[in-house]
Amino acid sequence: MFIDIACSQKKKYNQNAYGDYFISGRFPNMNRVVAVLSDGLGSGIKANILACMTSTMLLKFMENNSDIEKSCEIIMNSLPVCKVRGISYSTFSAIDCYENGKAKIVEEGNPDFIWIRNGEVLKPQFQTIQSKDFKNRKMKVYNINLKKFDRIIFCSDGATQVAMGTKEYPLGLERDGFIKIILNKLEQNPEISSNELSDYLVRQIQLIAPERKLKDDTSVLSLYCRDPRESLIFTGPPYHQEKDSYFAKSFMEFKGKKAISGGTTANIISRELNIPIIAEMSLNAGKLPGLSKMEGVDLVTEGILTLTKTLEYLESGKPEKDAAQTLMKFLLDSDIINFIVGAQMNKAHYDPNLPIEIEIRKNIIKQIAKVLEEKYLKKVNVQFV
After folding, report:
1. 8 A C-beta contact, residue 122 and residue 57
2. What is the pLDDT of residues 115-174, one digit of tens each?
3. Number of neighbouring beta carbons within 10 Å of residue 258
4. Which helix (H) or strand (E) holds 179?
5. Is 303 within 8 Å of 327 (Cβ atoms)?
6. Which of 103, 179, 221, 363 registers the highest number of CB atoms within 10 A of its CB?
7. Distances (CA, A) of 53 to 56, 80, 120
8. Buried (b) or exposed (e) across 188-211, using 16+ Cβ within 10 A?
9. Is 303 exposed, middle or buried (0-12, 13-18, 19+ CB in 10 A)?
10. Which domains occur in the chain, in start order?
11. How far apart are CA 146 and CA 226, in angstroms?
């Protein structure tokens, strides 16, 4: 079972920094995922620092295999109190989850998480732990067992309190209203990814806000238990030309989604398997070459230029409408990503007319793999051939 996790956020209107902070980590050797969503007091830079500090400390505790419950209790008892409002400087939700379904969730101050199974919202039991130092501060601890296709949704109070004081939502959207939006979307698209679902929910919350101006930072964290989506990207000609046929056949026999990045690579597969390449001119926006089509292959792009731009988009999270955006989406729609990287030198990489920042294919793939693992929590395998 794969744990698909993502978080989407919107800043409070007219603020330059997020007052909520999300951080997560995946540990493939332990089949484990940990994540923390913290809501800093107020908004702007101060709230961002407080939320960032809370989330980062919690994640570090959990990374060092400290028990999540004990870690959260330390944080709860350590957070200072605002002298003006008399409340904690930040609130948080944390989850420590294994791919066998065993999970522990701890919440302090944030809205209660939502657990959905087969279109129904479950109501798990929890233990309450009272702070030893603060009478008005306590946390809820849940020990649950997730099953395939279960979903977990966390949010900051910007989601449940949106539009508070309006005629339609005098008390805000509230938990029940938020749940209705989630269930309606899941009914329309039961297999929607965590990334798409969290993006959708944040957009819907902003649409509810008067004049679409959020009065609080809003974050939605989505977790989805499902079968892993596996993909294979073949880029660059193999070092030994006599193995072209072997790798071409291996590529086409792969059961998941398949992509080719590189004209030479596409020509090898076309030649060895007698499959024609068809140029597609509809996605030639920007400076990158457009896409091509090949029967049995989900995506065919140009090589080094597109890979370099894809890396840039993955790092910035701000793609433009071009072939690299399409390749980026292909990667992010996958859970386990396999790269076959040909080690034969391509003289085109050393063309003095190409941008100086372009690195050789091997290094670009290594950087893409690192970003996919660290920022997007993907499992990545790279094979140099």
Report:
1. no
2. 999 999 999 999 988 877 777 778 899 999 999 999 999 999 999 999 999 999 999 999
3. 22
4. helix 174-188
5. no
6. 221
7. 5, 12, 35
8. eeeebbbbbbbbbbbebbbebbee
9. buried
10. 2-226 (3.60.40.10), 230-384 (no CATH)
11. 10
- How many other C-beta atoms are found inside a 10 Å radius of the C-beta of residue 64? 8
* Pair of tokens at residue 265: 């690579």
Burial 311-347 (b: 16+ CB within 10 A, else e): bebbeeeebeebbbbbbbebbbebbbbbbbbbeeebe
Residues 252 and 135: their CA atoms lie apart, in Å, by 63
Report the C-alpha gap between 115 and 107 in whole angstroms: 14
User: Which residues are within 8 A (CB) of 246 and not within 5 positions of it... i.e. 6 or more apart?
Assistant: none
CA–CA distance from 282 to each of 94, 203, 296, 322 (Å)?
Answer: 44, 28, 20, 10
Q: What is the H or E stretch that residue 49 is in?
A: helix 44-63
Residue 120 token pair? 């129904």
Asked if 144 and 124 count as a contact pair (C-beta separation under 8 A), the reply is yes
pLDDT digits (tens, 9 = 90+) for 300-334: 998 889 999 999 999 998 888 899 999 999 999 89
Cβ count within 10 A of residue 129: 18
Quickly list H helices, 239-379: 244-253, 263-273, 304-316, 323-332, 361-374
**The whole model's pTM is what?**
0.77
Q: Return the residue matching tokens 């993955």.
A: 314
Q: At 341, is the secondary structure helix, strand, or coil?
A: strand
Amino acid letter, 359: E
How many C-beta atoms surround the C-beta of residue 253 within 10 A? Answer: 9
Six-digit token pair at 44?
């702007």
**Among 107, 111, 145, CA closest to 127:** 107
List of long-range contacts for 342-345, beta carbons under 8 Å, 24+ apart: 342/234, 342/235, 342/236, 342/237, 342/238, 342/239, 342/265, 342/384, 342/385, 343/236, 343/238, 343/239, 343/384, 343/385, 344/236, 344/237, 344/238, 344/239, 344/241
